[in-house]
């Protein structure tokens, strides 16, 4: 019962509950086209991928699930995108329930370091931006599907809404069997999806800054400055690297015209950051492109949003620490501000924990399969970073490997720090400290 009174402990439990409920619904006979319901493995993996807003799949979403099953998946990644605690608080407000301190604290924990006093305004911002972006993107996609591709209006609306919600929540699920590969030369399909992914991948603290201060750089918080600037740099690096290595690849960008090549290079510089849509065959990428994807997926997007990975701020903090050591400076600094030791330790903890989890998961899957290392490593990083891109091996993995990927997705969504806190017993502070002695490093 103690866990239920502690928001930090409650969050993993509620995510797990949503996964189990979703898996149960997907196992119902009317959730699948064959009328037999999904197996426990397929249902659990799909529900985990949806709640963790990842997008890895073991069955074809378009042909395996009924409209009911697809609707359950959509609801799960919408809930996962909001965050269980955020969604619960919003439902309570809409029902007229008071906005209590526990709700505010829970929301601040799930959204990572938001101030308690700002919780209500942030929740309102989350709801407004979610409804606005999803509605606009859904409208554009619906009109495009209906007017250009001849979809009946109800079918066009379904595909438009599904992709808009999936993109905004960085889920990467598609209602088409080939994701968006059939629209790889259509900027009015790929463009809105990219914009939705980038907006929410920045995180809601950045949106809060933009709402209060507009584009006034000097008024932004350090978090927003780091997130926005590093996002632009990483998107540019990804775009240049993918375009350079895939430009003449006959299985990816090679057959396209220049405009389509640039569009798809841009699209695939955005997707590894957090969302698993693909307009190109990821399995046909060259080795250098896969390596760039490893890096982009591992870093991920902004904190306190739906992006995965270790997060941009974590990566920048570590870079700043390295730079300070190289320059023999006491403090790690950026944009005229220094980092506290607590932030540096947290960044190191998250990065090391993530690296160990990915390494152990990869070694296990390599030990029980005969798959190539580059494909397995891609899969495990994608799972932990809740990206959802795949080289095409997911459906061929044995159940135990799928369970490992599901665990990675869960930890990647909830956060290594939150999971560790939820599982750890309350520890009393030690009344003593050991003598200091420094080993040789390097």
TrEMBL record:
Pfam family membership, one: TrkH
Keyword list, A-Z: Cell membrane, Ion transport, Membrane, Transmembrane, Transmembrane helix, Transport
Residues spanning the signal sequence: none
TM ranges: 12-31, 37-59, 71-94, 122-145, 188-206, 226-244, 294-326, 347-368, 401-425
Compartment(s) of residence: Cell membrane
Membrane topology, from the record: Multi-pass membrane protein
Keyword Membrane appears in the UniProt entry: yes
InterPro entries the UniProt entry points to: Cat_transpt
Record's keyword annotation contains Transmembrane: yes
PANTHER family xref list: KTR SYSTEM POTASSIUM UPTAKE PROTEIN B, TRK SYSTEM POTASSIUM UPTAKE PROTEIN TRKG-RELATED
Name the record gives this protein: TrkH family potassium uptake protein
Species in which this protein is naturally found: Qipengyuania aurantiaca
């Amino acid at each position: 019962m103690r866990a239920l009174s502690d928001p930090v402990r409650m969050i993993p439990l509620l995510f797990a509950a949503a996964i189990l409920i979703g898996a149960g619904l997907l196992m119902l006979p009317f959730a699948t086209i064959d009328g037999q319901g999904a197996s426990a493995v397929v249902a659990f993996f799909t529900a985990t991928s949806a709640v963790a807003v990842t997008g890895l799949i073991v069955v074809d979403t378009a042909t395996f699930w009924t409209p009911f099953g697809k609707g359950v998946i959509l609801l799960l990644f919408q809930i996962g995108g909001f965050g269980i605690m955020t969604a619960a608080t919003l439902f309570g407000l809409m029902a007229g329930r008071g906005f209590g301190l526990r709700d505010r604290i829970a929301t601040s924990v799930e959204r990572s370091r938001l101030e308690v006093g700002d919780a209500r305004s942030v929740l309102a911002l989350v709801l407004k931006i979610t409804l606005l972006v999803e509605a606009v993107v859904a409208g554009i996609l619906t009109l495009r599907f209906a007017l250009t591709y001849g979809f009946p209006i109800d079918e066009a609306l379904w595909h438009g809404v599904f992709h808009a919600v999936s993109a905004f929540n960085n889920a990467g699920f598609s209602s088409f069997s080939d994701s968006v590969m059939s629209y790889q030369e259509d900027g009015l399909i790929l463009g809105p999806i990219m914009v939705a992914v980038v907006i929410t991948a920045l995180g809601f603290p950045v949106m809060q800054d933009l709402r209060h201060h507009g584009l006034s750089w000097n008024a932004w918080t350090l978090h927003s400055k780091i997130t926005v600037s590093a996002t632009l740099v990483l998107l540019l690096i990804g775009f240049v690297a993918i375009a350079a290595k895939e430009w003449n690849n006959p299985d990816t960008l090679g057959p396209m015209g220049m405009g389509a090549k640039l569009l798809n290079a841009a699209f695939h510089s955005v997707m590894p950051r957090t969302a698993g849509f693909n307009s190109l065959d990821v399995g046909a990428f060259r080795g250098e492109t896969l390596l760039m994807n490893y890096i982009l997926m591992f870093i991920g997007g902004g904190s306190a949003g739906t992006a995965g990975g270790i997060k941009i701020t974590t990566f920048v903090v570590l870079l700043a620490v390295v730079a300070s050591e190289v320059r023999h400076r006491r403090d790690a600094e950026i944009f005229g501000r220094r980092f506290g030791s607590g932030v540096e330790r947290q960044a190191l903890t998250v990065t090391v924990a993530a690296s160990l989890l990915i390494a152990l998961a990869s070694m296990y899957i390599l030990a029980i399969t005969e798959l190539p290392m580059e494909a397995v490593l891609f899969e495990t990083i994608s799972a932990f970073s809740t990206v959802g891109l795949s080289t095409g091996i997911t459906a061929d993995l044995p159940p135990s490997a799928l369970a490992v990927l599901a665990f990675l997705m869960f930890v990647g969504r909830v956060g290594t720090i939150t999971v560790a806190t939820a599982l750890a017993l309350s520890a009393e502070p030690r009344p003593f400290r050991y003598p200091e002695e420094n080993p040789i490093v390097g």
